[in-house]
Design goal:
This protein is mainly α. The chain has one domain: Growth Hormone, Chain: A (Up-down Bundle). The chain has 17 helices and no strands. Helix 11 packs antiparallel against helix 12 and helix 13 packs antiparallel against helix 14. It holds the Pfam family MFS_1.
Length: 395
């Protein structure tokens, strides 16, 4: 492809590349839950250890997000995305070694790559698709949800096919490597220009903190769902395959709302109402899965997927809408996800510990609803038509 042709085709190609990257940003996380009982039976992992297994990767997501602005300024977003997807592949492959140390280490390493990619993609959307921010955010969020569904739904069948959970988890290194190979084409063509103007840190910006609170708390709902929903369903009498299937359908249910909500929200001046509606849908659906009729777990799972997927797409859209430009989007994305995922990490841990302390799932479900309520409070600020930070100073 010649240079002029590449430049003309770049928006389409980089959009497709973002989809490939997005597909790999959840299977390393969602493939754990359906196999958790098998892992515990084979390794002797305790319930507390299982809670930490679902929590540590989310914490690593937050820590990795701090690197986002540094990577953008020093190497460019494209090179940063390439590094991120290779780190995801490394973490996924490491789990194939078997045993608890590679399992925990691989999960954390993959999460670092996921966190870095998650920070960089909103900046690329703001830079290359500023006029179609809602549509592009919706597209890559939808593909991300489809990746999550694939990871959850295929976990048990892959474990059966490969004779154990280790290879079933390691296989996710393959699509990550494929995405890295496809993304390489963008690295030599990174546009060079003057370094971005220095900005005031967002740590004293109240709107930035409101966006951060909403991002973190709605993410906590998602990671509780990814990590514990299969276990909850199995405790209600479903087999591992059935629980994985419902979780997969739940993840597939995220796709339409992940696509449509950002596109719709980007057309609104105020996103508060849609945030509250999605939080109510998510909480009601989760309660129904925990304590409702077992015969209706499938429609309840779809409802939960619609709520969770819409919330995630909305949170990413709000990051783009509240930023003034691509650098501001990267800074806000880094702050909201670094702090937000650190908050989100407490959700799966607290959910598991509440189950151990009180037995059953009702107290844990109450915690889920409390997190949804807190997320709604932050959404009332984050959804306003405002911009974070001051505009960059003129040179």
């Amino acid at each position: 492809m010649t240079e002029p042709t590449f430049r003309n085709a770049r928006p389409v190609l980089i959009g497709l590349g973002m989809m490939l990257v997005a597909f790999n940003m959840r299977p390393a996380l969602t493939s754990v839950g359906p196999l958790l009982d098998s892992i515990r039976a084979e390794t002797g992992l305790t319930a507390v250890g299982a809670a930490f297994l679902t929590t540590l990767p989310v914490l690593c997501l937050g820590l990795a997000c701090v690197l986002g602005p540094v990577v953008v300024r020093r190497t460019g977003a494209e090179r940063g995305v390439l590094v991120a997807i290779l780190v995801i592949a490394l973490g996924s492959a490491l789990r194939g070694l078997g045993g608890l140390p590679p399992l925990f280490a691989g999960a954390c390493i993959a999460a670092v790559g996921i966190g870095l990619a998650g920070v960089l993609l909103p900046g690329l959307v703001k830079r290359d698709f500023s006029g179609q921010a809602g549509l592009m955010t919706g597209l890559y969020t939808m593909v991300l949800c489809l990746g999550a569904a694939t990871g959850a739904g295929s976990a048990v069948p892959l474990a059966d096919a490969f004779g154990g959970w280790t290879r079933a988890m390691a296989v996710w290194a393959v699509p990550a490597v494929a995405a890295a190979i496809a993304w390489i084409v963008f690295v030599p063509h990174r546009e060079k220009g003057p370094p971005p103007a220095r900005r005031r840190p967002l740590w004293h910006d109240s709107l930035a903190w409101q966006v951060t609170g909403f991002m973190g708390l709605q993410s906590s709902l998602a990671y509780i769902t990814f990590g514990w929903l299969p276990v909850v369903l199995q405790s209600r009498g479903l087999s591992a395959v059935e629980a994985g299937f419902v979780t997969s359908i739940m993840s597939i249910g995220q796709a339409p709302s992940a696509l449509l909500v950002p596109a719709f929200a980007a057309r609104l001046r105020d996103q508060r109402g849609i945030a509250i509606a999605l939080l109510i849908l998510s909480a009601a659906s989760f309660l129904a899965l925990v304590d409702g009729p077992v015969a209706l777990v499938l429609p309840f799972g779809i409802g939960l997927g619609l709520g969770i997927g819409g919330l995630f797409g909305l949170a990413l859209t709000i990051v783009v809408l509240r930023a003034r430009d691509a650098v501001g989007a990267a800074d806000l994305s880094a702050m909201s996800q670094a702090v937000g995922y650190s908050i989100a990490a407490l959700g799966p841990l607290g959910f598991g510990l509440a189950h151990d302390l009180f037995g059953g799932w009702r107290v844990s479900a109450g915690l889920f609803c409390a997190i949804a309520l807190a997320s709604g409070i932050f959404a009332l600020g984050a959804g306003r038509d405002r911009k974070v930070g001051a505009p960059p100073a003129a040179e």
